[in-house]
Amino acid sequence: MPFWSRRSDAPGVPGFVRLIQTADLHGSNAAYRKFLAAAKQHEARHAIITGDLTGKAIVPIIRTGGPVPRYEAWLFGVHETADTDAELDRLRKRIGDVGMYDHVCSAEEATAIDADKVRLHALFVEKMNGRLADWLTLAGEVLEPAGIPLWLIPGNDDDRSVDEVLARSEYARNVDHQVVELDEHHELVSMGDTSMTPWECPRDYPESHMVVAVKDLFERVRNPAGAILNLHCPPRDTKIDQAPALSKDKKITFEGGQVVMTSAGSAAIRRGVEELQPLLSLHGHIHEARGIHRIGRTLCLNPGSEYAEGIMKASIVNLERTRVKGYILISG
Amino acid sequence: MLDGGLDVTAMSPAAPRLFVRNASGLVRTVGIAGAIYFGVHCISLSSSGILTFYSVPGLWPGADLLIVLTLSAILCAMHAYTYSQIGAAAPRSGADYTLASRTLSPWLAFPASFALVVFSGLVAGALIVWIPTFALPALLRATGVLYEQSWATDLATFSSSQTGILVFGTVGVLITLISLFYPTRTVVRVLGIGFVLGIAAWVVIVFSLATGSAETFQANWNTYVPGGPYDQVVSTAEANGMVFDRSFGNSVVAGLLMGFWIFYGYYIPTFFAGEVKEASRTLKWGAWGSLIITWAIFAGAVLLFTRFVPLDWMTAQGWLFINGANLDAPFQAEPIVTFYASVLQPNVIFFLIMAVGFIYTLINLAQTYFFYASRIMFAWSFDRIVPEWIAQVDERTGSPRNAVIVIAVLAEIGVLASAFYSQLFVQLNFVFYAAITMVVPIIAAIVYPYRKKHLWEQGAGHVRTMIGGIPSMTLVGIGTLAFILLLVASPFLWPAVGFPADQVVNSLLIFVAIIVAGVIIFAAARSVRKSSEGIDIMATFQEVPPA
Questions:
Q1: Tens of pLDDT along A221-272?
Q2: What are phi and psi of A316, to 5 degrees?
Q3: Are A287 and B539 within 8 A, CB to CB?
Q4: Residues of B numbered 455-474 whose beta carbons fall under 8 angstroms of chain A's beta carbons: which are they?
Q5: What H or E segment, with its residue span, contains residue B337?
Q6: Which residue from B minimizes the CA distance to A93?
Q7: Distance between CA atoms of residues B534 and B536, nearest Å
Q8: In sequence order, what are the residues at sequence separation of 6 or more whose Cβ sits closer than 8 angstroms to the Cβ of residue B3?
Q9: Whole-model pTM?
Q10: Among residues B107, B38, B125, which one has the least CA distance to residue B406?
Q11: Shortest distance, CA B193 to any CA of chain A (angstroms)
């Protein structure tokens, strides 16, 4: 079924552009593949990934048994076994689809890795960058024939080592800290840095850094009326930056039987959006804060994330030269 | 605990089960204890406590209350299992709507969700009406009889009159509305206080029941309650037409039908499924845990009370109150557990704790209904079915004012309906409507393993379990559907919970009108979005096959 109606809003009308954007895929093969398919299905002019590309966990698949190997793993608290290569492949696919990496090894090796933080980090780097490289290759195979450019940035959870992998991409383009022209009317303004989180992730920064980074980036925008922000971190005090408030030991806090929510966005980004008043502001970072928020004329969007269920969440936006014509949040 | 329900604390002693790196995103960490907390709060120790001692025995004279409570809890546990599977299969806000719209069709799911929100708003009003109908008169009447203050007795009578219900009910709606204009953090503190007050009220009730005696109760009743001596309550009810049916079958039928009356709310954490860790385990045990705890409290209170007051007497009190308007029987007193406890222990501190606790938590319960109904409206707004302004929040307080105002309007209609028809009638309608709107998501759950096989196969925990080669989601879902259809049919089959004869057509017409309104809203939204924005909202419900 065509996604648009064939009227004045149809592609081809001067100034019209359709974007598809997602964020926080966190290594989920299923979510990523669905995103690529959705870009084609909805005939987007540009595909954008707003940070946090890599996964956070590795599932050790323990090889046991004698001459005929047997495999065991725990996935979401459930004991999984595989007795054949086909079953092993299915298990590995399920692990990949929910954003985790697998590592087939003996129980002894798993224990040794667990005890050696340097070795564990190296394993993560190998797994994260390997999958990311596969993704970038796939993007070229799927999107290039359709003529859909893929613009992406790392997010605060992405290790610094991914920059090198992204730089090697032949099709997708890392636009972190850059202002690029999508067409004669629209500029894409991108940054993956975020305010500090309790976890002190690779791209977490204090607000003082965010103020400087936002100023530096926004000063390069030539036409705010047609600017599209692509910032991993959402603006502060909005509906799309609400996250559970945490105690000192990083546990969710409750009051009156309800989760206490707090703002986790950046004040610097908020001020920047208020002053620049761009056309559109795309975000991610807070998985559970899917939704929209308006700051003056600017429509701010966070598609949310359910990568751990293998569910793709994305936003689709129809733009005219200086107006958001329509938008929708999709999941699949 | 990192997000996605990754349990890093339960490593196998032989080998690690998971390697995790330092990363952000601590979400989904509402555990089983948190889900039980939600569930107990939503079941409501106040309104359900009232229902257990009044409408259940009053509607089913002769039924064994313990059998009714137990059977109801078991059936609700089955329903809870299905809803926990729905929440685990679609772990996000509005899980039932999400699963149904994606598995069946938004044309079915939206009208059902729309009807649920409309009736949740109405029942929020009906719950507020418990205050002028029961809680306030119990406080005032106790004040009046214990301290010989006639104004208090007069005000109690006014409170439960039609005008009183309208006045106090509207004030209650306004208080609830205004309270939700405050920042969320303030609101949750208000709810937190309510939880403590509710527990305190039940501590007083249990203490009073545990330390009371038959002689004290009878003597105090005859002293304080005008209009009918203790030993004439049962005979008065029987003389006016109450017939005890002590058969096991009567208890079973009551147990089959009263589950939602007593325990409704245990599955509400499904609506917040996006915030729980290991949704499969947490939602299942959260719902079951809250059922077990509330069952234990109510059954314990019944056992304590019936140590010195026969169940027949309690039944007659409920029956006289329910049917009082049509009888020539003298009015006695509100047949609620707080009043009984006050009669046993006529202590001003005690009855203030109970009355304040019950009134406060009834407002809290209405606030909870406002909360979850507004969350569902947010989900509609994300899907572009309703206008953006409905999901707008106040910049300063973060309050979803517009959504809350819409629910308040519905709640006021619930107050009006309660005043003009009776609170019981509204409650009856709510059970009927709540049940019928669940039919769509439950059917979606039954067919989910077949229509969304690939998603079902990667589902967590009990979503993927099989019973005799059939997915448990399907098998238990069929049982739950039978239970729900029984509740839907009950107003037409059992007079005890039947619509008044002159209201059957109205009840059905209202339901049909709301469903049709839901269909029209969906069609209109689709048309408007398509023509003015160039988008088809059906895109949000379509599954995207991976590239």
A1: 999 999 999 999 999 999 899 887 877 777 767 665 556 778 899 999 999 9
A2: -120, 130
A3: no
A4: 455, 458, 460-461
A5: helix B337-344
A6: B458
A7: 7
A8: A56, A287, A308, B25, B26, B27, B28, B29
A9: 0.78
A10: B125
A11: 7
